[in-house]
Task: inverse folding
């Protein structure tokens, strides 16, 4: 039984993680615009930093053995939830504006609903189907009004595809591997997951790691990369599973809406992006659709979560 204090800590951890992700969108865009680091090298640097930090922390915690049969499952989870998710994001962010990236990220809960239906039997009600329709209408409107001609700040069709894949792969990760994530401590799961992700990335980034001129990287970009490694990778990927064990998945998904809000405010404030009425309409449709999905009836109790359901909306 989850106590009120534990649930409150879960809310704080998820809110903090998605606040970090909101700023992460803007910083990744700034790093991409600097052209100082390729997306492949940047992902590998994040994987190296997170792996080192999670393994370091594990030495100060009680040893936890991973079952032999779970190793390949963790590797597959790493491929979907870390390698593909972050790689599509880092590549897609070079082809899309920060605001569009954040708005597309709100589709994650919709995809999660679909995978939850197929893998854990979560019901898809009329309200959920209506939410999907509204959200997809928002995506179509965003596509029609975000693909501009020329300019590094424009959103391209390939950028939209990569960012949609980003939401899709992370949703698959959450929908398929949630029982595995809950089985082990956060540190144990993540130290292996990031190690596997690091090994997967090396064939794509090894040459760049050794040929890149690190001295030519601007000081500001170095600080931004440091933020990505420590906060947006190590800290955020610790906070999310911590919160998942304490609050319902529907509530976790709701915090995803913090990211576009933060990214929008920071992007406009720094002059990286600008707000248009089309973006407001698209964001309203997508967020409105996801809220409709989140308010629909859930399975009771939450299957495979280990968390008793407080309601049956």
Result:
């Amino acid at each position: 039984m989850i106590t009120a204090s534990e649930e409150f800590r879960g809310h704080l951890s998820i809110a903090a993680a998605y606040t970090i992700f909101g700023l992460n969108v803007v910083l990744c865009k700034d790093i991409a615009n600097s052209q100082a680091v390729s997306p492949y090298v940047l992902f590998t640097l994040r994987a190296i930093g997170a792996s080192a930090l999670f393994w370091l922390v594990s030495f100060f915690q009680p040893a936890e053995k991973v079952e032999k049969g779970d190793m390949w499952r963790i590797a597959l989870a790493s491929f979907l939830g870390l390698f593909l998710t972050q790689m599509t994001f880092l590549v897609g962010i070079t082809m899309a504006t920060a605001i569009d990236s954040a708005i597309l990220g709100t589709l994650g809960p919709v995809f999660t609903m679909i995978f939850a239906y197929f893998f854990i039997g979560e019901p898809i009600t009329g309200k959920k189907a209506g939410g999907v329709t509204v959200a997809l209408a928002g995506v179509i409107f965003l596509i029609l009004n975000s693909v501009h001609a020329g300019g590094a700040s424009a959103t391209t069709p390939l950028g939209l595809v990569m960012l949609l894949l980003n939401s899709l792969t992370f949703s698959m990760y959450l929908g398929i591997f949630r029982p595995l994530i809950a089985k082990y401590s956060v540190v144990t799961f993540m130290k292996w997951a990031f190690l596997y992700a690091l090994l997967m990335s090396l064939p794509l980034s090894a040459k760049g790691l050794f040929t890149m001129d690190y001295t030519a990287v601007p000081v500001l970009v170095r600080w931004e990369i440091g933020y990505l490694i420590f906060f947006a990778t190590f800290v955020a990927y610790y906070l999310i599973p911590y919160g998942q064990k304490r609050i319902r998945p529907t509530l976790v998904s709701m915090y995803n809406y913090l990211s576009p809000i933060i990214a929008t405010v920071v992007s406009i404030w720094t002059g990286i992006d600008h707000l248009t009425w089309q973006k407001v309409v698209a964001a309203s449709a997508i967020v409105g659709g996801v809220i409709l999905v989140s308010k629909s009836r859930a399975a009771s109790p939450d299957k495979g979560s280990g968390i008793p359901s407080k309601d049956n909306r």
User: Anything to note?
Assistant: The chain has twelve helices and no strands.
